[in-house]
Structure formats: C-alpha cells, structure tokens
Amino acid sequence: MEIAITGLGILSALGNNQYEFWDKVQSGKTGISEMVQLDSSELLTNYAGEVKNFSPEKFMTKKEMEETERCTQLSFLAASEALKQANIPTGFYNSFKQGVILGTSLGGIPNGEKFHKQWIRTGYEHTDPNLLLSYPLHTAADFLSMRFNLMGPKVAISTACSAGSNAIGYGIELIKSGKADMLVVGGADPLSMLSLAGFNSLKALSDEPCSPYSQSKGITLAEGAGILILERLDRAIERGAKILSLVTGFGLTSDAYHPTAPNPGGAGAFKSMQMALERSNITPQDIDYVNGHGTGTRANDSAETTALKNLFSNTDKNVPVSSTKSMIGHTLGAAGAVEGITCVLSLMNQIAPPTISFAKNPYNMDFIPNISRSMPINTVLSNSFAFGGNNASLIFKKYEEKHKQTNVLPEFKQKVLITGIGCVQPLGIGKDELWESIEKGTSAIDTINFEKEQYIGKMGALVPEKKYLKYINPSLIRRLDLLGKLSLASSKMALNDSGIKINRDNSDKIAVIYGTSSGPIQTVEDIHRTIVVDGVKKVNPSQFPNTVMNAAAGHICSAFQIKGPSTTICTGNVAGSQSIAYAYHMINQGLIDAALVVVADEYTETIHAGYDRLGILGNSPYPFEREGDGMALSCGSTAIFLESEKHAKERKANVYGQIKGYGISSDAYRIAGNNPNGKAYSFAMNDALKESSLSVDDIDAIFSDARGLRSMDLTEVNAIRHFGGTKIPVTTLSNKNGYNLSGMTPIHIVAALQAFNNHKIPGLKVKKPIYKLNFATENQKLKSANNFIFNSANFGGTYTSIVVGKYES
Description:
Family: Belongs to the thiolase-like superfamily. Beta-ketoacyl-ACP synthases family.
GO cellular component, one term: cytosol
Structural class: alpha/beta
Largest sheet: 11 strands, mixed
Radius of gyration: 25 Å
GO biological process, one term: fatty acid biosynthetic process
CATH class of the largest domain: Alpha Beta
Number of domains: 2
Protein name: Beta-ketoacyl synthase
CATH superfamily of the largest domain: Thiolase/Chalcone synthase
Number of strands: 31
Shape: globular
Helix content: 25-40%
Number of helices: 23
GO molecular function, one term: 3-oxoacyl-[acyl-carrier-protein] synthase activity
C-alpha cells in the first residue's frame, strides 16, 4: 500500500499559500521580522516569524470566528487550500474513511491565557467561559472534521516540535491499516507568550534572526500551519488526481536522555532516520536532499549533524542539508508539516532551498548556503526533533506516472496481549487495591473543598501524593511535576507487573505511547501566573520543560531507558483509548515488540474551575440518569504493558487478556458538542467488532464512558441502541472513581481483567434512566466473560471503541 500526497496548504511568515511561500523560499528570502502581536519588551529578542496579512474573516462566518481561535483559523485556511488543490469529488470517499490527524504544541492556549488573565485580574465570576471551548488541543481537528465532513479517524498529537511530522506519520499508518482512505494531516501553532517566556527563561532565543548550522545562537519562534492531503495511491489514480509526491516512510524514536537537550551523539535521531529508511525500503545512498530540523541552537544543530554524518558515513555522497527555519522561524507543532510541504515542493520543482543567514560552517557539511540549488531530487529526508527526546523522520519521493504500485493492504497477524498493569486511581493504588474496591462497591467520590472560589460543582475524587511516591525513584522527584509523578508511578507498577527487563538489546523495540487530555495544567498555570503577576523575567527555567504535553512521556522514557517510538495523544476524553489503539496498531503490524501505554490526568483547582465555569460539573454525578446534573472529576494514571504474542511467549510472560480490535469515528457535528443520535459513535463500536472478527452476540459487557452529563450519556445510549446492545450488561466506574479526563477506558480495562476470572463487573445503579439499558447490578455475575467492548467519547464528537477478550493461545 502506497500513500500519495494530492494537496498542500500552508500559512507561514513567508506567505499565506503554497505559491507565495515557495517563491520566497527558493529565492532565499526571510519572513522573520520584529514582533507585532505580542509585547517583546521583556524578552531577549524582538524577532519572530509571524503570519502577515492574516484575514480569516474573509473565509469564515462571524459565528465561526467567534467560536475559534488563531490555531484553528490557521488550520482551516491551510486545509481549505490543500483540499481545493486535491479536488476530491464529493462522495468519492466514504465519510467514515476520511479523517484528520493534527499535530500541535500549543493549540488554543492563547484563549486559555486570556481566561486565566481575566481570573487573576478581574475575578473568576468575570471570566468568559466561551474562551475555554476553543482552548483544548483537539479544537482545530474538531473544526476541520465538522467543516469538511471528515467522520473517520480524528486524532490530536502533541509531541512539541515533532507533532506535525508525527501526525503525517500516523496518517500513513492509518491508511495502510485500512482505517482510512483519505486523511487531512499536518500541524498548526500560534505564537504564545507562554512559549516565548519559557524559551526566554532557558536563554534559548536568538537576539537576531536565527542562523541554523552556522552561528547557532538560538531559535526564533514562529507561527503557522501546514496541511497535506494523504490518499491511497490506487484510489487517487482511480479518480484522476494529480499526484504531487509520495510519502513512503516514517521513523519515530525516543532519546531517553534529557527533558530539553538532545543526546549529543544523535543516537535517537540516527535511529529515527534509519527507521524511516527501512520502512521505505531504501538506503542512505538513495537520499538526495535533507530538510533538517535545524533550529539554530548549538545543542540541536550539533546533535543532528552528528547523526547525519553517521547516517551517510558509508555512502559516497555529500548530501545537501538545509533548514527552512532559517527563513520562517520555528513553528513548533507545525514545523514538521510545514517542512514536509517544503520537501514536496522541492521534489516538484527539483530545487533544494537554502539555509539563509549562513556565515560560517562549523559542522563542515553542505548546508546550501544562502542560495537555492537546482538539482535532481528523487528522494528527500525530513527531520523533526523535540523536547522530551521525541524524534520523527519522514521520507518523501518523487512520483513518476510509470511508478509500480503496491496496492494490497498488508496482513496484520500479530496478536496484541496485555501482560502488565499499574494504576494510581482514587479507588486504589495498584491493581489489587482497585480490584478490592470494585468488589466492595466502594466509592471514592467526595466533597472537594477548594480554597479560591465558590463553585457550583463540589464533588470529585483525589489521590493523595504520599500514597504513590514510593513507586518513584527519589532522585527523579525534584524534576517532576504532578503529572510526571502520577505517570512514573503507574509506569513502574506496570513494568514490574509485566516482568519485562529493559536493556540495550530490546529498548528500541519498546514504545511509550502516552495519553493525556489536560496535560501538565498545574505547571502551565504556575508559569502563566508568574508571567501575569511578576513578569516574563521571573519565569522559572526548571519548570518550563514540563509545560509541553509530552514531558511526562519523556520522563518515562528516560527513567526506564525506553528508546523506541514515543508519542503523545491529546484528543481529550478519548486520549486514553486512542493511545491503546496506537500501540495496538504498531505491535499488530510488527513495527515494535511491545509498548508501555500510560494515560494520566491531573485534577487540580484550575481544572475544576474551568469545567465548573462551563457548567458541566455536578453534585449528583450519576451516569445515565435522566436528571443527572454533571460530572465529578478525578485525577489518576493507568499504565498497560502490551506486547506481541511472539514476544510474550519467548519470555514466558503472564497474559491477562488480548486487544482484539478498535474503531475510531467522528460525528462532524460542532466544536465542544456531540450529535445526540449516536450513529457515528456506533460506527466506532461496529468497526471494533469487525476488526475483532466478532458479532454483537459475542460481547459479554459494555464498559461505558457515561459521566453523569445528560447530553453525553444520551449520545452513548443511542449508540448502544444502534449497535444492538440494549440487552448487553452496561457498566462504568465514573460513578465511583470519578471521571478520568482522558476517558474511562484504561481503568475499565484493568477492572475487566479481573472480570475475565470471576465473571463479576462493577455495579451501576440507575434510578431514573434516560433510556432503559441492561445496567449491571452490584457485582453482577455474568454467564460468560470472554469479550468486552470499551467505549470513550470526547466533547467535540470523537469516538473510540476497543474490544478486549480472553487470550486464547
């Protein structure tokens, strides 16, 4: 199966469409200029790569403008250009086979900053709750799904500076697996004072336009969006599409080295490039041009050039390398997508763009100094490296009409088994405590007394830190924030439970797939409060690295020396289930042997305040109740160790169960809202069944994502009705553990593993149901317990369902 690129869309400091952008790139012009949007008086630099003449109101309705922020608007304009160029006939693809995968580091954080500033300066009661609707990282993906009727997979990825590349790479895998035929992929990020102040505290900002691979004095931050349209090559040819290029390979690794600095020897970067080459079935000798990460910091430039020299050490080519960031700055989560577009345009025009502001050559490589170069280009390598040690590499190839295509969907044969579990939850620390609480019917939800404000919702569930700190190496604690501590504790439990011994021989074949909805909100709040109250210069540089969504994943990789693929999924309340699905997919197709899936969310006053301001927290958090008044939130972390059957057998691992299949869908309804008819939700359930080769009659229980919020619960009720599951026992732990913001699937899977043995599932008492389903009675004994389906739903209409069953050798 080969993947075609049929559309490009871009907004950057060098132009608001691909034609303007490419004209200036090949001419070696700079888009970096003095900042206009934000006050730079306290920063080390006045320079940034801002999008100029940005007028989204010309393309969006007044209502759309009011409901969105700059990241979503950038994404929409880029996607509009890309889809217009792709010119896909309406109805050519099944709506559930077309989706969106978007990478971002900041998303709607400028709106979050506005809300927080209002809270600090004028009081909580004077804040505008509408700002929070477009704050989540998945908002842009939700809007694109709605606007373009993309009802298939919808995923938000946040691996800082490699997020855009990661989104493209995951898009490749989803099409190859048959989950999608066409995807809108890429990345977008706005400028943000949080980001500027953080890099400022690290003394990482260049006081003049950045000079990658040359002066290496620091980075220049920028904003922008890059969107690519990916299609199955055979389908694109079938409809007579103009093929711009092919994207053939994707590499993803972790440094497991340091929160901000890359491994000086470039080991992780080298392995990422190697993986991309292997997946493209080519060698370094085949590479004609490299679009480098090239940020302009000495540490990054040195590590990348070391890795590149190692990659090409056995070739007879002096492969040219250049940095697009020298012209547009560092667009963070958009960088990999923007630079991927540069690669496609290079292939189309047979021109390698320059590295400008180039004065000296300390690394002794061909960096195409200052002037672009006409040359034969058939294959391009693109690199993106990020905080937390996330490395991503992509291979783009020139398309020839006589090109031989491989259109057969690959056969995935690896069974994916659960061999280790760990949890830090209000109902219990570790699986045994959790299982005991479920057996007793215990509830951890209680009245929460926060000090700052008077809230409508007063219920929640917390986990005292002292209960789980013993699972964390004391030498690591000072580097960790709350999210990091929760994540490392459950990770340690799951790894111990699995019995895996991580060493040099297997570390790069184990992945860390991380899911979080709200991320390190406590750290973000602390830093932004400092900016507002004390000023930019007072930001603590030791805190800033923990503000990125993938920071906790980086800590996990470093603590346990896991060096395989690592990514962070941030699609709100489906982040947990999508992380499990991503890991399942990679093991299923033999990319890795095993994966540690970790899903975590904080529950702090800041989170409580935000959800309470939106009016969705309640004091009677009872799922499926007709008069349910809202959710009760909880903090926590769940870790699940997955591995292939072959790998588990070789090391004689204890097996708890088997991931049999998953489905992802979107209802393309509205931002922060869900279509109550439940049809898109039921598609995810049915798709999970289909992949599992099961029927509805084979499902013994439904573990629901219901949360006591009538609108969301009604959507799932209707999904279950469409699914034909009204007679199947339904349960959830959100009424006893509180609702985990990344969704209930991870903790539900841990609960279900006990049910495989004792046939008992948690009880769910519903007095006045929205609709009468077969709600589980307390410790209901099932006739059979062979297969369960786990649902999750996000505000904004993304749904993921997973089937887990007993393992049968």
